[in-house]
Amino acid sequence: MNIQITNSFAKFYLRDLFTITMDPSVKIFAGNGSNALAEKIAQRFGAALGKINIQKFSDGEFQPIFLESIRGDYVFLVQSTFAPAENLMELLLMIDAAKRASAYKIIAVIPYYGFARQDRKDKPRVAIGAKLIATLLEAAGANRVITMDLHAPQIQGFFDIPVDHLDSSAIFIPYIEQLKLENLTFAAPDVGSTNRVREIASYFNADMVICDKHRKRANEIASMVVIGDVKDKDIVLIDDICDTGGTLAKAAGLLMEKGARSVRALCTHPILSGKAYENIENSVLDELIVCDTIPLKKESPKIKVISVADLLAIAIRNAYENKSITSLFIHSQLRGKR
Predict the structure, then answer these.
(1) Looking at 27, 40, 213, 250, which residue is catalytic?
(2) Residue 211 bridge partners (DSSP)
(3) From CA 31, how far away is CA 82, in angstroms rounded?
(4) Element spanning 165, H or E
(5) What residues are paired with 303 via a beta bridge?
(6) Which single residue of 5, 172, 261, 297 has CA 20 to 30 Å from 306?
(7) DSSP element (H, E) containing 210
(8) What phi and psi values does residue 57 have, to the nearest 5 degrees?
(9) Residue 299, SS3?
């Protein structure tokens, strides 16, 4: 009798265990750098944010500890890798911890991919930081990466794992539409932004101009010229990064000098270092619209934030369900308008 009960219990237990193994669940965790955004993503996704503790030692060393089982689960780790470099190291340690805890799949959700400006060897004896970060993420154990608006799209080629490169235009386009600007014209603050700006301009059937700049050194502009007609136009500057705000402030001033009626800017990643807030507030920009891929250091009357939580939640859902994310890209929307 006892043997029969034991066997029945064992069969039931093993059957239940088999069901769990065949149906991995989703767990979303946040690093300290992106905790507020991860909370929004988890809420939009419909799951509670996972419990994790970043234990710190007195010398500054830290160790991530998952406070719940993740064995056999899809684990999404949300962390932007902006400065300081601790944010990157924290993500790498979280990936390693998840791998050692037997997670089924580990997906690094990196709203802002730091070191992306180091995407090529443009001068002698320099590192290609973007490639090194890709190598580190793979070595740590990431199975997939979800990111937004890489400084250079070809960075996806640095990875040997799948990369879902999301486009902020899905967020910016509805905002631009509700502005109802009469003489809408788009501007690229530098030559490197032309492809990104051209796609959005094509969506609106609008004109585009280029602000061609020359730098003396990093974060310092020597000269800038406007290529195109901006007289009596409502200009929307589009860029992926706003660091010191110097480029946007100078471009906006030059556009107004050339006869523009209004100038506003949309940038995905608000790094906003150095005198950025001062530069933006003292500029002729009507407003600067940014995403919450990086938390703002402080509020500003000229800076508005649009959340990427919905976009990332959909990307996470589709990655988990093995569905396409093509509908999230502007080229898919353009096809629908033709």
Answers:
(1) 213
(2) 226
(3) 12
(4) strand 163-166
(5) 288
(6) 261
(7) strand 207-217
(8) -95, 165
(9) coil
Q: What residues form DSSP beta bridges with 44? A: none
**pTM as predicted:** 0.88
pLDDT in tens, the chain (338 residues): 444 445 554 454 445 544 444 457 999 999 999 999 999 999 999 999 999 999 999 999 999 999 999 999 999 999 999 999 999 999 999 999 999 999 999 999 999 999 999 999 988 999 999 999 999 999 999 999 999 999 999 999 999 999 999 999 989 999 999 999 989 999 998 887 888 899 999 999 999 999 886 655 555 555 678 889 999 999 999 999 999 998 899 999 999 999 999 999 999 999 999 999 999 999 999 999 999 999 999 999 999 999 999 999 999 999 999 998 887 776 545 444 54
Q: 223: Cβ–Cβ under 8 A, 6 or more apart, which residues?
A: 213, 214
Check: CB of residue 288 under 8 Å from CB of residue 265: yes
Distance CA 229, CA 257 (A): 12
The Cα–Cα gap between 60 and 121 comes to 33
CA-angle at 101, arms to 100 and 104, nearest 5°: 100
| Distance of alpha carbon 314 from alpha carbon 309, whole angstroms | 9
Whether 233 is catalytic: no
Which tokens hold the place of 310? Answer: 């919905």
> Which residues are CB-neighbours of 217 under 8 A, at least 6 positions away?
none
